[in-house]
Amino acid sequence: xxxxxxxxxLHSIIDTMxxxxxPEVKPLLARLRDDYWKPVIEPASPEEIEMxxxxxxxxxxxxxxxxxxxxxx
Length: 73
Fold this sequence. Notes:
3 helices
């Protein structure tokens, strides 16, 4: 389902919702909107740092074994 279709369905749900339910939905929607723009970025764990270091060594040893990010678009 595309975002456009989902937005349309959500708008339809809100448009047909009983008026007394709207105040209950507003805080939830506001929180979801706000959380989207504030991602949580945590420091890498020691295990993650080790994995990153290993991949960097793999790349240094054989760069041709990696796929360029541009080719994935």
